[in-house]
Specification:
The structure is a homotetramer of 224-residue chains.
Chain A: E1 7-11, H1 21-37, E2 40-44, H2 47-56, E3 61-63, H3 80-85, E4 90-93, H4 102-114, E5 118-123, H5 126-133, E6 139-142, H6 154-157, H7 159-172, E7 177-181, H8 187-195, E8 200-203, H9 205-208, H10 213-220
Parallel strand pairs in A: 1-2, 1-8, 2-3, 3-4, 4-5, 5-6, 6-7, 7-8
Chain lengths: 224, 224, 224, 224
């Protein structure tokens, strides 16, 4: 069975270049490239940008984190319900910049699932990818921490971690979808990642901080 | 010198009754009561409600938490800059449901100050109130944890903790402003708190979960 | 294949009744009951008691937590190497009173494994038990948080959570061993837990805070 | 009033070179240098080394962290009572490698004080030093994070942070004692720090990882 749809998820983080008007510009280009190429491109945006982005664009908008708590006495928390109401279709969980306890991760995933939202659990190696897969998220996104923001693509520097993580995920959950991240910056990186068995990529700075994000986005889909 | 302005800050937490349309209804009533009474009433809202509330209402809108990080590679974080752009005039910090390390608390406060935003540091007792005062926030909000959500007002159950905390804050920072919280539910509670030397109150469930929040708000300001 | 060995692990927590001389008394009784019954009984002790207990007793002594860091610049951390040098044969990880991020949990487990120490990962439900099993610890110990310290035995109150957790663990890892905890207090509880497919039990207050811990220990093994 | 006693506190961290036999070697040298020079030298050791070091040496032995909880159901925690029973005379709190929430910091300090143990609260800048001083610990130890482990002495690189932190501490608590840390490696660094108004120094790698820790210790006290 061929997995046909490749998913490119751009994490806007808290970058100034990924907030407010700049987020809208990236969304405009992402939507355009997605329509031209047929590749699914999503944005993981800051909470305050979720609603305007969801309202103005057709591409999937993700949150970057949700707390696995119900509506209630949770000051400073963000519920799955709140991000759904803001128009998000899913959320990252357990990003390397926002690690969660195993219990909180499972609670966050459950909260997303109950709101019929997608989930992307970030992991740092083969073992944690297998553990994440056992929770049955929509995607497991493997990002070797030593390569995040390094400018060195995981698909070139350490292709084995991709193949081993894909294998580890599929052993626990044969239907499990895998994204790969860390250092992804070109269509070649994406192509390698997909050829190694992943369902897409998670990337951030190489798009968000690019002089011409549209050019990078077009390059990313160019070999698919 | 008499401190003339009393500040009533309503923490909407993640309550379903304090989100979306319900937040707008409470804001409508809060603005009306504030205009009638001359008492300053603010709302601490969820991130996703910050922008619509700020846009539609004149009363001060606060965030419930900010991360003391600059714009950058901080997935799932909320910067002071982002909440300012959403129209917030300040933020809670270190609420009992979102405690911070001392270093993160100071970084959050600094980030708010650099964005010219107000800060309300929540504390749990006399000693932590003094420590918070040494950081020079706009307000220190003392909330004895054993009384939060108890339905027992701190101003009746434990007035000494208010007077001792006010004294502790003023010893470290003679200009320090103090809010008091935990169990506040009536105009009488507010009156006692103000008479004991505080500059206002921080409260949540007794307004947000009330059948008639407007009636509670009118009662809260009735003896000022 | 019958799993012959049942493991009873007593968590001494930070109880005054489980520290120093009191820990030695419990160890004395545990060793005696273990020898009489042939049931393996271990103690998870405070760091400071690890070395004296390991030195004076034959029963397995566990730590209650290790940090997944190598020896180095980690002030206030406890390495797997340090607990091994103190004579411990393993450690709890991710107890409900000391939850870990997924990444830290995996790092802790890896550190224990490299030191040839046993690992008991505590979990709170079926899904996290499966995730923990994917990491391949020596034991997964399922403790429904609502029953911890409740005096209500999980094996009576919620036997399905035991059978489902055992199934979830074995689906991910057919060789995975499972302990069950929360509310275990008698030989009958232990018997039910073992009959439901677990390899033993993890318990604390019903032994440590008992007037006669030896009597409780003898009761625990009485139906095996 | 001249402050006569200078305190040199060596943080052994989790260094392999500061554990077990190696900790004993450093303690032997520290005791010898302390006796020769009259300078007070203490060691902050791992939990497992607290008891043997306290038993075999006269110099003050500190823990590196305590949890501000009473004896009880706190798995994997270390109480002030436990470190006192192990012979420690005090503890670090809030080291940069083990940051605490403000509430936990105050609770830890209170627990130490109730056990009549000394407390060294680590801070990262002037503002957090003032906040720590408001809690009235035995010492505030200021360590600019950018200089920790840098090999660049705070007393040379940034003497103003020392003078400003000392001033900030003394404004809140005129009797407050201040240690300074980060990059301290020679008698000259110690001399500068003391001349700038501090009561001693906190240091780690330059002693613990030295080829000849005794020589470094002798140098540290040489200009006092």
């Amino acid at each position: 069975m061929k997995r046909i749809v490749t998913f490119i998820l751009i994490n806007l983080k808290s970058y100034a270049e990924g907030t407010g008007q700049r987020a809208h510009q990236i969304a405009t280009m992402a939507q355009s490239v997605s329509e031209e190429s047929g590749v699914e491109i999503g944005l993981a945006a800051g909470y305050i940008d979720l609603h305007p982005l969801s309202r103005h664009f057709e591409i999937p908008i993700y949150a970057q984190h949700v707390d696995g708590v119900p509506p209630g006495a949770f000051t400073g928390h963000v519920t799955a319900s709140a991000v759904r109401q803001a128009g998000a279709v899913g959320s990252l969980l357990n990003h390397s910049e926002r690690r969660l306890t195993l219990a909180a991760l499972e609670a966050g995933l459950k909260a997303l699932t109950e709101e019929k939202l997608s989930s992307v659990i970030c992991t740092n190696n083969e073992a944690t990818s297998a553990a994440a897969a056992a929770l049955h998220p929509t995607y497991v996104a493997v990002e070797p921490p030593e390569l995040i923001g390094s400018g060195v693509s995981v698909s070139k520097a350490n292709p084995e971690i991709i193949t081993r993580s894909v294998a580890a995920v599929r052993e626990v959950n044969p239907e499990g979808k895998v994204l790969t991240g860390a250092g992804i910056q070109s269509g070649e990186c994406v192509k390698i990642a997909v050829d190694l068995g992943t369902d897409g990529v998670l990337l951030a700075s190489s798009v968000v901080k690019a002089k011409d994000p549209g050019a990078v986005l077009r390059d990313l889909v160019s070999l698919l």
